[in-house]
């Protein structure tokens, strides 16, 4: 094999590796979040009328709309998870675990 062939081969290998890495990242992103008790993927549920005080406080602190919060629930009903992503530089992502 000459150098050009080696170079192309190397590029292809790199492409395959980065493709694999990308799909791995996408797959693990899709899996988020999962239940720590049973390991099942948690499903998104609609927001209820009343949200826990901690969630409301966090949203109010950074003047975020109610819709910024997501609620995940374990399909087996172990617990629910409240998640508010990080929108700016000042606040942190917010998590709240609530037993059902
Ligand atoms: Zn569970």
Number of E-type strands = 4
How does the helix and strand content classify structurally?
alpha+beta
The kinds of small molecule bound in this structure are:
zinc ion
User: How much is the average pLDDT?
Assistant: 85
Spatial gap, N to C terminus: 63 Å
Strand order of the largest sheet: 1-2-3-4
Largest sheet: 4 strands, antiparallel
* Gross geometry: elongated
Question: What does the model show?
Answer:
With 100 residues, the chain is of the alpha+beta class. It has two domains: 1-31; 33-100, no CATH class. Helix content is 38%, strand content 19%. The protein contains two helices and four strands, in the order H-E-H-E-E-E. Strands 1-2-3-4 form a four-stranded antiparallel beta sheet, covered by helices on one side. The structure holds zinc ion (ZN). Zinc ion (ZN) is lined by residues 35, 37-38, 40, 74, 76, 78.
